[in-house]
Amino acid sequence: MGTERATRGTVRPGDVAVLDANGLDALIRRLRELGFETKGPVVRDGAIMPGPISGASDLPVGVADEQGPGRYRLSAAPHSRFFDWAVGPGSWKAEFFPAVQELWRANVDGASVALMEPILDAPPLAIVGMRPCEVASLAVLDRVLMEGSYRDPRYAQRREGTFVAVVECASPAATCFCASMASGPSVDVGFDLALTELDDERGHRFVARAGTESGAELLSSIDHGSASTEDLNAREQVLVAARARMGRELDTEGLAGLLARNIDHPQWAEVGDRCLSCANCTLVCPTCFCSDVRDSSELDGTIVRRRAWSSCFDLEHSYLHGGAVRTSTSSRYRQWMTHKLSTWWDQFDTTGCVGCGRCIAWCPVGIDITEEAAAIARSDTGLASRVELRGVTS
Amino acid sequence: MTPVVHRVVARTRETDDVVTLCLEPVDGPRMDFLPGQFNMLSAFGVGEVAISLSGAPRDVGPLRHSVRDVGAVSRALCQIEVGGVVGVRGPFGTDWRVTPREETRSVDHRDTVVVAGGIGLAPLRGAVCELVATLPEGGGRVFVLVGAREPSQIVFGEDLAAWARAGATVLVSVDRPSSLWHGHVGLVTTLLADAGFNPANTRALLCGPEIMMRFTARALVDMGVNPLAVLVSLERNMQCGLGWCGHCQLGSLLLCRDGPVVPYAGIVSGLMNERER
Amino acid sequence: MITSLAQIVRQHPFTVGLDDEYVALIEGCAHNVAFAPGDLLCREGESADTFYLLRRGHASIQVHAPGRAPIVIETVGPGSVVGWSWLVAPYRWTFDAQAKEPVGAVAVDGACLRQKTLVDPALGYALLSRVTAELLARLQATRMRLLDLYGGPGEH
User: Fold this and answer.
1) 20 to 30 A from C139, CA-CA: which of A112, A114, A228, B231?
2) How far is it, in rounded angstroms, from Cα B98 to Cα B104?
3) Res B105: pLDDT
4) Residue C124 domain flag
């Protein structure tokens, strides 16, 4: 192969190395030896989903995807690349913020109550094959669950112990627009290790960048070569080609203000007519964080409080003694989209959308957030004074 | 996220559907809080709801919460007897900003007009206690305007009398008088003209049904009160109190974090006038 | 200090911004009145030729019914105008107005003013604008009360 003979030289954070296809397998096995529970993308139920992996062969080798509004298909590809697809419906959010999570349980005996919190003793997690948009989405969730006034100990504990090996995107789908959201196809922060899959005349290999000490140590401990100028150029070309293949775009310039001043735009009613209020978009979204807190009683009398994902498309989401605040589908769609692209900035000083395109692919009627934003931009009906109201707080 | 177990040490029925619970922690010290903040109260096995604190920080003794029976959890809370247990998480949210700040201990000399509708007096009770307590120190005049549907729905009657004795102007109006009612009849906003505060030097604290707060805030601004000095207490579905669950969003606000007490000026007046359908 | 009737009329919110000429006209049709608690300012069903500019004390707008205390609809106080039935035929009071406490008011002869508006429509417009403002405020407050704002969620 074209790379230098593999060595085990010491790697430091910021260094760039090259792994061959076997190196990827070695990396996963080394993580397992270190005691990590290793997870990565796997093919399950006809989709690429998060799942346990014990070696590179568990990854979606030679699999291609085809995505469009309301459409997702996997097919066999005429190559043996591991990461030649875009994100599937399952995001890594669930690893850190499970769909259902026990908060505590209580035994009530007369007027005395014993409360017990679950012990957080899961082994450390290593994810190999996270995509850049998902790294970005976890940074968004960090703002909500870890970096506000209150820190969610469950989320934080899982998040901080996790080793992240991200793989840059070579094959964005027709639904992808991460380039517009500055969250892909390349990645600069938020990883221990960043890989770029190359498959050209110089062979099938990975450019590997160490982002942290743990990433550097891991690379040091497996066979690797140093990256040549050709390797680095090849990576650049992959990313340039990926940007060019990006299926969609979203004009983010002034977008938050545009939506804020178009709260009464007729487009909301128009999209409300198409939207089924099914909540698929919020379930596949890697940043949606809304949850319900519910108590239940077990048969033995134990009381259990759980937190479960919920959706702003549910009627009950806005329930206020007496009734729901947002009863129409259009007002619920408006809540969802203005939150993602506008009020999220006010609340958390970041976007709520990373451009992964899942909400487009998994919408049963193919509603496209980029098209809805563009429709409003085409006929900006808002009053300028509404903009001035924004950002005026105590 | 895990509640602290409190015991009900006293329980008062305020009206046919409002009960005041006085709570003390089973272990450890009582929490510190500011008037206007809220706690998440758990009726074990039923669920959890946001209930404002209605005591004054300067009072020693149990935490006070007045609960209106409007749903499964609030009903269960209303039914807990003395000796029973309640889970408490908090305090959460913003306050009425009436407590003299530690660093200055400066007393506010402005007139304060407090307008409460129905059970909306509960989140304001602690604030009025604080304001009335600073009257002898030269604090500004206090005007408490209370609206209720009918005389039997007026809460905290003893407090109203005590505040009046302490020098506050207390005016109460009902929508539907009983034959024994000799007080004012009419919308609570009709009390504003009679109250006698100086609009140019007034701050206002409003709590009640959102429609009432909207109309009262506008009436105050029309009278010349600075909209930045008008505070309202807003309510939306709250399930965590921590800014995590997303239910309490009102436009750009997360009301458990940015509220419940917010200035009427700016974005809030706009948000209170948005039509959700 | 004795305040003249002119000053009293001039200082009442009802005449704010009104031409001096018209204030003088109103004054010419007005006289000071005092009511003891329980006195009726006007009586339902009787001919309405007067209206009152309240200066001090509160009055109840109410309806009487046999076998029960009067039903109070609204309390009005200083600065209010009591009575607008003098403006519109058949010029008859629809409700009682009763002093809750000592009430001081200016009684204005509406029948006299009505005659003057026939020859001076601008006076009619000025009076109507002021009465309409009072009407609007009371109608809006009445509508708000119809909403039963403090009612429980299960009652809507």
Assistant:
1) B231
2) 13
3) 61
4) yes
Please tell me the predicted confidence (pLDDT) of residue A6. 55
User: ipTM of the predicted structure?
Assistant: 0.90
Q: What is the residue range of A70's domain?
A: 16-98+109-245
Query: A135: which 2 tokens?
Result: 């790294």
**Residue span of the structural domain in which C62 resides:** 5-146
Interface contact flag, B117 C150, Cβ < 8 Å: yes
Nearest Cα residue to A287 out of A110, A141, A109, A101: A141
Closest Cα in chain C, distance from residue A372 (Å): 36
Three-class SS of residue C14?
helix
**Can you tell me the distance from the alpha carbon of A59 to that of A83, in angstroms, rounded to the nearest whole number?**
8
Comparing B39-48, B75-84, C17-26, C144-153, the range with the smallest average pLDDT is C144-153
Residues A208 and A226: their CA atoms lie apart, in Å, by 9
The Cα-based distances of A209 to A192, A214, A240, C98 in angstroms read 8, 12, 18, 88
B257–A149: do the CB atoms touch at under 8 Å? Answer: yes
- Count of domains for chain A: 2
Both A127 and A232 in one domain: the answer is: yes
**For B189, which of C69, C141, C154 is closest by C-beta distance?**
C141
Pairing of strands A203-210, A225-226: unpaired
* Residue in C with minimal Cα distance to B153: C150
Q: What is the mean pLDDT of residues B204-216?
A: 94
| Domain-embedded: residue B222 | yes
Residue B66, pLDDT score: 96
| Structural domain contains residue B53 | yes
Residues A236 and A259 in one domain: no
A232 & A275 share domain: no
Quick one: which of A242, A243, A247, A248 has its CA closest to A373?
A: A248
Strand-pair partners of C99: C59
Do residue B144 and residue B189 come from a single domain? yes
CATH at C86 = 2.60.120.10
Q: What is the CA radius of gyration of chain C?
A: 17
- Inside any domain, residue C153: no
E strand spans, chain A: 16-20, 37-44, 47-52, 63-68, 71-76, 100-109, 112-116, 125-130, 163-167, 193-200, 203-210, 225-226, 291-297, 303-309, 319-320, 323-324
Q: What subunits make at least 3 CB pairs under 8 angstroms with C?
A: A, B
Distance from C121 to chain B by nearest Cα, in Å?
A: 30
Contact present, C59 and C109 (Cβ < 8 Å): no
Please check whether residues A226 and A263 belong to one and the same domain. no
> Are residues A164 and A35 part of one domain?
yes
Tell whether B222 and B120 lie within a shared domain.
Answer: yes
Does any domain span residue C156? no
A218 falls within a domain: yes
Tens digit of each residue's pLDDT (9 = 90 or more) over C25-79: 999 999 999 999 999 999 999 999 999 999 999 999 999 988 888 999 999 999 9
pLDDT of residue A273: 97
Closest chain A CA to residue B26: A112
Domain that holds residue B191: 111-233
Report CB contact under 8 Å: A115, B258. Answer: no
B70, B184, B187 member nearest C144 (Cβ): B187
Say if B245 falls within a structural domain.
no
Spans of chain A below 50 pLDDT = 1-5, 384-394
A332 shares a domain with A270: yes
